[in-house]
Amino acid sequence: MVNSNANALGIIFPNSYDNMVPELVTERLMASIPFASRYRMVDFILSSMVNCGIGNVSIIVRKNYHSLMDHLGSGREWDLTRKNGGLNIVPPFAEKGVAVYNGRVEALASILDFLKSQKEKYVVMSDANIAVNFDFKALIDAHVASGADVTVAYKEEPIPEGMMQAPTVSKDLYYTLGIEDGRVKKIYINSKEAGVQNLSMNIYIMDRELLIDQISTAFVRGFIYFERDILAPHIDELNIQAFKFDGYVARISDMKSYFDENMKMLDDENLDALFSANPVYTKIRDDNPTRYINGACAKNIMAADGCVIEGDVADSILFRGVKIAKGAKVRNCVLMQGTVIEADADIEYVITDKNVTITAGKALKGSDSFPVYVAKHQVV
After folding, report:
1. Which of 156, 244, 160 has the alpha carbon at shortest distance from 199?
2. In terms of DSSP H, where are the helices of the chain?
3. pTM of full prediction above 0.85
4. pLDDT digits (tens, 9 = 90+) for 134-173
5. Residues 20, 354, 47, CA angle at the centre, nearest 5°?
6. What is the CA radius of gyration of the chain?
7. Residues 91 and 214 in one domain
8. What is the biggest distance separating any 2 CA atoms in the chain, rounded to whole angstroms?
9. 132, 257: one domain
10. 207/373 Cα distance (integer angstroms)
């Protein structure tokens, strides 16, 4: 792993956009949603930071964070078990008088004393609703070279349908950017524009002292959202530069996109685009390799370790320890850890959460546009 040499500390907001996938976050948060057979969403941003030499990372949790703490542990897999810096998980109510936060301003206000005591010159901030292999070093270099106050990463892509149709729009804001000669001249909030937009990735870098100053002022005035309440009103005073990202981005904005983005991992081109640049680290579980019992048929699947396959499975993502019994048929499914598909069951376009059992002979079929979701620990 890269030594800690970036003059920046990282901050991740793991609960952002929880409201867009309510089914998946009843007992977890966006950052710990399983993705691509053995990872969690947080692995991608966290690994990207570590790979670029950011060795001081704080994760400001809001609720349902037990699964995230279990996954991250001390941060050993990311080489973040350190005397100085390392991984810092900040729970809500960490300080007297600090309630559960709503937006980034309140979240950052809860760690102002921590920010003041740090030595790094820059702060890099990100949500955890995107799976991406991001080059933070390039972002830091571009920020320093341009002399910007703030630099924001964006990708040219259409606004995902799930974002535009989000039921609680006020809670989950998304941003598109009006850019002139590399400078952000306009921030559009919850735009409904069709076609390719400059869609913000909600990844920012700015000077630590400037961040402390802006957050202190904004918090006193009762502001909540970093982009809406700090950046947008001061777009002329602050030099906000745009950093275009051309790499692969899997963005989770609703259940359909969660299903689709997992399925895209079955295409080698997408898989390479996401994983080939730098390693993505995750919690290590020493499990047996996947076993294919005599008579099993598997075609175009992504399977983590510990699976036992006796039946017929195609075009599916299998997380750790999935068991598919003899005579069972699985097509176009995302089966999370510990899912058991019993003999002669027939399922298609289904997402099962952890430790779900589909009973013998059961038929369960969704569609490409509306996959069926089975909640944690259910027996169907």
Report:
1. 156
2. 41-51, 66-72, 104-109, 112-117, 136-146, 161-164, 208-220, 226, 255-264, 268-275
3. yes
4. 999 999 999 999 999 999 999 999 999 888 876 554 456 8
5. 65
6. 21
7. yes
8. 68
9. yes
10. 43
